[in-house]
Amino acid sequence: MTQEWERLPCFVHTLQLCVDDCKEKIPNSNALILKASAVVGHFARSTNSSRLLDDIQTRLSERSEEPLKLIQYCKTRWDSCYDMFARIKKLRVALEGVWCERPNIPRLDSSDYNKIDIYINLFAPVKDATRFMYGEQYSIIGRIIPIIMALKDQLTKGFELAAGMQKLATLKLRNSVYIFLLVKRSFMSVYAQLFR
């Protein structure tokens, strides 16, 4: 008796495809990503600017913690755009200090920071879902539907852009839900055969 195996796409990869589709739908998101990447790239290439950023962080810090580095966006690394924006937001005061001392280096303005805040708020639930599913050695298919429902709930709370993302996510994730139900049905039939 031969049975065909149903291919199950990776749930986290499906989430990231939703994020990629949505980034393309957000107005001027590529320009913001390029601008932020230019800032991060400058600090990666310039040891003087990097040292100055570290010094300012040390002066601003009440505790003696290690200064944070900026995170570069990498198109093939999941969540790297989110991570880059979150780190830039966290280091905003220190970056402003560097820009005061060195006004000729690439910089972000308040409009850019507003867009970064929107991006972070919009994609934070996806980042959490990705972290949660990667947090286990093996992803459990029973977690997919609760995560999809939580994402749907989070994405409908207060963001205009969320409606577009929700539509895209629904199309992409509907396939995952269908596969979940198919696997569940297959599992139940196998389970029934084994324990007759």
Describe this structure in words.
It contains eight helices and no strands. It is mostly helical. The longest helix has 35 residues, at 160-194.
Secondary structure blueprint with pairings:
Layout: H1 11-25, H2 29-45, H3 47-60, H4 80-90, H5 92-101, H6 110-134, H7 144-155, H8 160-194
Subcellular location: Nucleus
GO molecular function: zinc ion binding
Protein name: Zinc finger BED domain-containing protein 4
What does the main sheet amount to? none
Estimated share of beta-strand residues: under 5%
Number of strands: 0
The span between the termini is 18 Å
- Relative helix content: over 70%
Order of helices and strands: HHHHHHHH
Mean pLDDT: 77
Low-confidence stretches: 178-196
Number of helices, where a helix is a run of at least 4 consecutive DSSP H or I residues: 8
Oligomer: single chain
Net shape: elongated
Please identify the structural class as seen in this structure: mainly alpha
Calculate Rg over CA atoms: 21 Å
